[in-house]
């Protein structure tokens, strides 16, 4: 379970670091590089163009990015991108501009759609064959969801509906991305507690008391950590400024701080750059060398911190923090919040009722697996029985052939041939076997033998 969740967390982390998200990609125009001495030059306040989109982790990521690239090449569409706000994009107003895209780009979009349709057909056929081959019920509704980002009823041309579906699907999928990570982590925590309780059941009374005592000690040790500053607060940023950047807290300047930690120089804090700011706070709570500290919990804590800052600072909800948004946040009352950040150990992730429901679900899954295992065992036994019958039949056939060959070699009399005619040119094993059985049951068998 831990290994599986570790792989999932690594994958989720990689996707989160890649995703500049659909809500920002529609404004993806090449940004101007910034060549400045970040510790000395006063940054400019003007807004820059958002960065180009990277991999989102969606199953249709390649199709998504290729469509964006070709739309950006059209001068009319590019101009509309610059002058359309996020709400209008979500409502599908931008999609109608597809009718004005140049013919050569529309032709290329048609080709991209046909390639995507072929990819999805092959993918779904493979899934269908696998499920059908395993005797599993095919979930056709789930398979059809693979097509939600395009109009599969028209497989040949890229139309306004295709662009509209692409925007809405990617928006929905990316908005659910963090929620899926939270749900996965919650299941991980419940599984961890379930396995702990199962281990306790198999212990003696003395062992159980000792284990429970150790568990409580580890919980207290983990909770005993320095104060964690509120993510995005002045104290938290000043700590980074001092400890990571080596600068005097008294000289803290928000604009300079932004430029210093905008690692790719595109004028925005993306999710990766934001999460990097929380490392010092997380190190107060989590240490990979400590038994009581779970590194999966640390990544969940990092995600919570990032979401908190985005909710407070990212006013246009494009999952990017611009310089103006950052500066506006430093003027809010919340920026000077001195309260300690409540870590995961102070916020229960699930209730006892939820844990019981989860355990019931695990028990049902285990019963289903056991039933399937019994069925497979029966099938195996039946196959083995059939194999034994085939082996016995093969052995009997072999005996028949050998006996017939011996009779043939002995040169049987005409009378024997007349009374017990054996078809020596039998076309099948069954005819040979039938002849042998007829011969073996005759009075002449012992005489011939």
TrEMBL record:
It is a peripheral membrane protein. Residues 193-219 have a biased composition (Basic and acidic residues). Pfam families: EF-hand_7 (PF13499), NUCB1_N (PF25434). Residues 1-31 form the signal peptide. The keyword ATP-binding does not apply. GO terms for molecular function: calcium ion binding; DNA binding; guanyl-nucleotide exchange factor activity. Keywords: Calcium, Coiled coil, Cytoplasm, DNA-binding, Golgi apparatus, Guanine-nucleotide releasing factor, Membrane, Metal-binding, Phosphoprotein, Repeat, Secreted, Signal. GO terms for cellular component: endoplasmic reticulum-Golgi intermediate compartment; extracellular exosome; Golgi apparatus; membrane. The keyword Cell division does not apply. InterPro entries: EF-hand-dom_pair, EF_Hand_1_Ca_BS, EF_hand_dom, NUCB1_N, Nucleobindin. Its main location: cytoplasm. Residues 193-233 are annotated as: Disordered. Residues 355-410 form a coiled coil. It is found in: Cytoplasm; Golgi apparatus; Membrane; Secreted. Residues 249-284 form the EF-hand domain. Belongs to the nucleobindin family. This is EF-hand domain-containing protein.
């Amino acid at each position: 379970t831990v290994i599986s969740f570790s792989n999932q967390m690594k994958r989720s982390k990689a996707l989160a670091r890649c995703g500049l998200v659909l809500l920002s990609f529609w404004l993806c125009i090449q940004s101007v590089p910034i060549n400045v001495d970040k510790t000395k030059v006063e940054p400019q306040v003007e807004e820059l163009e958002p960065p180009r989109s990277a991999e989102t982790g969606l199953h249709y990521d390649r199709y998504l990015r290729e469509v964006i690239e070709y739309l950006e090449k059209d001068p009319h569409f590019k101009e509309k991108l610059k002058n359309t706000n996020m709400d209008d994009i979500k409502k599908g107003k931008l999609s109608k501009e597809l009718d004005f895209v140049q013919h050569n780009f529309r032709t290329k979009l048609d080709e991209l759609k046909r390639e995507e349709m072929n990819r999805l057909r092959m993918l779904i056929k493979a899934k269908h064959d696998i499920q059908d081959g395993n005797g599993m019920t095919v979930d056709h509704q789930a398979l059809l969801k693979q097509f939600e980002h395009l109009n599969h009823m028209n497989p040949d041309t890229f139309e306004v509906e295709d662009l509209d579906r692409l925007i809405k699907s990617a928006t929905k999928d990316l908005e659910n991305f963090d929620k899926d990570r939270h749900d996965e982590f919650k299941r991980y925590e419940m599984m961890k507690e379930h396995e702990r309780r199962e281990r306790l059941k198999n212990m003696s009374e003395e062992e159980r008391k000792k284990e429970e005592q150790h568990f409580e000690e580890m919980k207290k040790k983990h909770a005993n950590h320095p104060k964690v500053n509120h993510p995005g607060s002045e104290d938290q940023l000043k700590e980074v400024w001092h400890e990571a950047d080596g600068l005097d807290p008294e000289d803290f300047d928000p604009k300079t701080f932004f430029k210093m930690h905008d690692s790719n120089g595109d004028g925005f804090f993306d999710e990766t750059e934001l999460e990097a700011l929380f490392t010092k706070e997380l190190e107060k709570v989590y240490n990979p060398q400590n038994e009581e500290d779970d590194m999966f919990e640390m990544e969940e804590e990092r995600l919570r911190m990032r979401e908190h800052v985005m909710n407070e600072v990212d006013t246009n909800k494009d999952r990017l923090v611009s310089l103006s948004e950052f500066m506006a946040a430093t003027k809010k009352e919340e920026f000077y919040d001195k309260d300690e950040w409540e870590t995961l150990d102070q916020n229960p992730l699930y209730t006892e009722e939820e844990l019981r429901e989860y355990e019931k679900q695990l028990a049902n899954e285990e019963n289903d697996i056991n039933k399937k295992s019994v069925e497979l065992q029966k099938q195996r036994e039946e196959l083995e029985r059939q194999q034994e019958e085939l082996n016995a039949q093969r052995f009997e056939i072999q005996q028949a052939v050998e006996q017939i060959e011996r009779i043939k070699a002995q040169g049987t009399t005409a009378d024997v041939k007349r009374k017990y005619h054996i078809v020596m040119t039998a076309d099948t094993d069954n005819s040979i076997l039938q002849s042998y059985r007829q011969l073996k049951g005759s009075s002449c068998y012992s005489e011939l033998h």
